[in-house]
Amino acid sequence: NPKKTYKYEQNSHFYNKVECHDAPICEHVFCNTCITEWLTSNQTCPIDRTNLTIDALKPAPRILRNFLSRLTLSCSNQPHGCPASLTLERFDAHLLECNFNPKRPVTCQSGCGMTILFEEHGNHNCIQSLKIELAIVQKENKEKNEEQEEKMSRMQSELDLLKAEIDALKKVIKEKQPASSDLQLLSTVGQSQAVNQGTVLADSIWLTKFKTVQNVQELFNPLVFERSDRFELEYDLLKLRKIAEMQLSGLGCPLEMAKILIENSNETRWPPGLRSEEARRENWDRLKDYRCRVDGSFSVLGVHGKLKAAINLIMASDNAHMDQDLFVINPGFLVLSLDFRAFYCPNQ
């Protein structure tokens, strides 16, 4: 009877009507939930016991579904005070907004502002709920902190491993540096043409004639370091420049390379960590890491007699391991020393 108000039990019972499909004489209609549960343990129709499987079920006729949709139902929250009677098609929408639904979420108006179920509102304790919420947040934060600490520990271990590998590589480079640096393409600085290994060896073999010095701190010692202007009255700087060029050429250094090395002997062309006395004092302990090539096999004649001279080469190929502020620009630079007093040749 469409005019009668029926009690609601489960909405899916009405929308998912099914009927037996296998037997033409069996057109019994059941709710989807009930018949599905029955057929999980029985393979017959509950009414006439004809054979029936879940696969044989099909939707109920449209006329039956339309009839059911016009039935008037009482709200399922009627026991909680809801007086609404409505058709099946409006039933779900009503349940979502029914003020008598004990499962609907509401916001606590007592101060905590938490979202709780309406049925729990009477027993809700703001302080206790906030304590529980705080405990949950603290637990989550603790887990996140532990996870972050674990990640940081892994990253630190990886960093330590990388540092160890870098130190090992630096050690290998230092051990192999004499052999490898001699094969650098020193005579073709600023040129892009390719050369074969034989040319490289021929152009760089002259470096092997220099004595290798690992610690060059004394070369830059402020107590013995002299600027070029202090030599102007005693030495002919142009002559010293020419002597250095000839000495390098005599050792096999290409002329173009010799000129570049002498040009770079100007203090302003040195690495930032060497360009001033203050910078050299500040980086004093780090200067011992420089690798220098020295040739002291000649003398020069000064105003007061013959002086022992030495050419000190700080080559970029020998010092690739230095930090940025002490990094030598290719190909390197020359420091000339007379009687153990070092000075740079000025640009003329």
Automatic annotation (TrEMBL):
Highest taxon of the lineage: Eukaryota
One family name in Pfam for this protein:
USP8_interact
Q: Which GO terms describe its biological process?
A: protein ubiquitination; regulation of canonical NF-kappaB signal transduction
Positions in coiled-coil regions: 127-172
Q: What is its EC number?
A: 2.3.2.27
Q: Per the database record, which ranges form the RING-type domain?
A: 26-49
Pathway membership, UniProt: Protein modification; protein ubiquitination
Q: What is this protein called?
A: E3 ubiquitin-protein ligase NRDP1
Q: Which organism is it from?
A: Artemia franciscana (Brine shrimp)
